[in-house]
Write a structure and sequence with these properties.
Chain lengths: 374, 374
């Protein structure tokens, strides 16, 4: 079970084995590698989700050197070291935390362990990047916020649907430049392929992954805050539940939420119903409505259209056009490494990182059933 | 003012003068004309919105003969008779209602007059088709329901974004045939171009047009009920307000709502922010999520893509493909004429027609402000 558990993670990251076409949807455009000597050493603690590879790659592109990996599961460590042959395998978490040369730790442990690991990392004087969801309960969030404020360490969450998607990065530049005026609303949809047979047990346990809004919709909450420029926000309404997966009664297969921030409004829908005929794991979209135009991002696939991923469409007061994002840099890795070295806050403001999780944790806590009563 | 007031209506129907390309987006594929003698005579009372032309055309395609038109505004009557030279101009509403040979009356009067006209039409023993919104208050809805039940007449509302859109009609066939399994959710977006300068006064007065959710989102409420197969539904949350049109403080430029029905859930967003660079009045979309696949409809335009309108995409367990809807018949006109003659309920169940309006009237009544406080 443990040996298989990274594979569905790889699928969720667009790297499903046996689906080579889909596997390269987002990765097909190589990002430039770091030139010159590494800028810092980083370690990895917990590799239960395949996202850890995209996260490690991003930090390496930003000048990081992968020094250590620690995980409880030998099968997962074996897969990881095959992909990263230079990494040292630690015998314990402490061995990573005790290495003073390690400045940054990454984790894609089982979701409910990510917060506690991050707290120990910060208390050990190091910075931290968690896979999303980076926190799975409001109690964890409070503790993480407290320790972060005390230690002044970085607690980042790799919202990969923004940081690792060229069209979304480009949209950020366009919106900042005023291309669509003031942003009024975002609609983010994150459908996912379930692949239930290859999933580990924790995948089905809300207590461990936090629920569908926490798990998946943290991406969309991040993008809502980012594109509306909201620094305060609230949940207007939310739903989450199991509408069509009776074989896993504790699993949540559908969720949605309406959001309202001080910079605009938002809607998010997430689900696990991607059909097998889609050539990637999910037709993720983001529509950004502005006062002077709108942007649509087709993140992973342009259905029955252009090849590849990261599709960006802009309609403004002058024209409607497709924007090629092939040569857009993904800056998160470079920025977070600089933040660690320079004690800056450029990759993602710390308050934003926490507010995105707060929104989905609150949405999850107050979620109604999507199934109508009576 | 009155002379101009039909033009923006024409724009909203995709027929804006001076935008020939946009004008033909949906109309470019000719629907077959009625062959043979007319099946019934119909009259028109109230032509304040250009939708009346699409409605009249649909009924004529279904075998109706346009006998009468009545309107208070001579300028609008002049435009109408230029388009339909054979129509007789009535001197009063009563002249239409008193003609026993007229079986059906259509109206695109100012929205708050459509309900009262329909009540008089039904009491005169005739059937009725209102432009949407067909009812602008919950009190009107109660009275319309009562009179409809007493008279057993048809009170139909021309939800043109379904009835007059080939891709949406085709999607109905696909869903009915089980192409995407059980429908779980619909997301409908209805952005519109404002064209404020050419609009009549009633366009800006919530009391007359009912508010943005009633006015525009009745389309999406209809489609939510239709595609989820819901016969009961409730509003989970709704927002409506003026977020960026300070020059018309009473106008509502943005609205959205979450819906839950006994057949699935829905989300709707409507707005008046279509930019001038879009080659049509609005990039209306409908995404239908099913247990075995999903459908996307790009109703009026495939941005930076294929020409024309009525674009249909299907992703199922086998493949992802574009479906050509060029030769799809729009059956509403034929069906409603048959319903009038045969006393059947095939074009749209009466209960469905009212429930769609009930949903948006309730959403409008409980709508929160989209602007965050504090």
């Amino acid at each position: 079970m443990a040996a298989l558990s990274m594979l569905p993670g790889m699928a969720a990251a667009g790297q499903q084995p046996g689906m080579a076409g889909a596997a390269t949807v987002e990765r097909q455009v190589a990002q430039p590698k770091w030139e010159g000597p590494p800028r810092l050493k980083f370690g990895v603690i917990g590799i239960n989700h395949g996202h850890i590879m995209g996260m490690s790659d991003a930090v390496m592109r930003g000048g990081g050197e992968l020094a250590w990996v620690y995980a409880r599961e030998p099968e997962l460590v074996k897969q990881f070291t095959e992909r990263y042959p230079g990494v040292k395998v630690a015998r314990s978490e402490a061995e990573v935390l005790d290495d003073a040369s390690v400045k940054l730790v990454l984790s894609a442990a089982i979701p409910d362990e990510r917060g506690p690991i991050g707290i120990r990392v910060m208390k050990a004087g190091k910075d931290y990047i968690a896979d999303k969801p980076g926190i799975t309960s409001l109690a964890q969030l409070a503790e993480v916020r407290k320790v972060q404020a005390e230690t002044k360490r970085i607690y980042s969450i790799a919202y990969s649907e923004r940081f690792e998607n060229r069209a979304t990065v480009k949209a950020g530049e366009l919106v900042k430049a005023g291309a669509i005026g003031k942003v009024l609303q975002t609609i983010g949809t994150g459908p996912h392929r379930a692949g239930y047979k290859g999933r580990p047990e924790w995948f089905f346990d809300v207590a461990r992954y936090g629920g569908i809004l926490v798990d998946i919709a943290s991406h969309q909450a991040d993008q809502f805050l980012y594109f509306t420029g909201s620094t305060k926000a609230e949940v207007v309404a939310s739903q989450a539940g199991n509408v069509h997966t009776p074989q896993y009664p504790k699993f949540q297969d559908f969720g949605d939420m309406m959001l309202r921030g001080n910079g605009g409004t938002g809607y998010v829908r997430v689900d696990w119903f991607t059909p097998d005929g889609l050539p990637t794991w999910g037709d993720g979209r983001l529509v950004i409505l502005g006062t002077e135009g709108f942007i649509e991002i087709r993140k992973n696939v342009d259905i029955a259209g252009r090849p590849g991923g990261s599709h960006l469409f802009l309609s403004d007061q002058k024209e409607t056009k497709y924007i090629d994002t092939t040569n857009v840099e993904l800056p998160y890795g470079r920025q977070i490494v600089s933040d660690v070295l320079d004690r800056t806050d450029t990759a993602m403001p710390q308050a934003h990182c926490f507010l995105a999780m707060q929104l989905v944790l609150e949405a999850q806590a107050k979620a109604q059933s999507p199934v109508m009563k009576g």
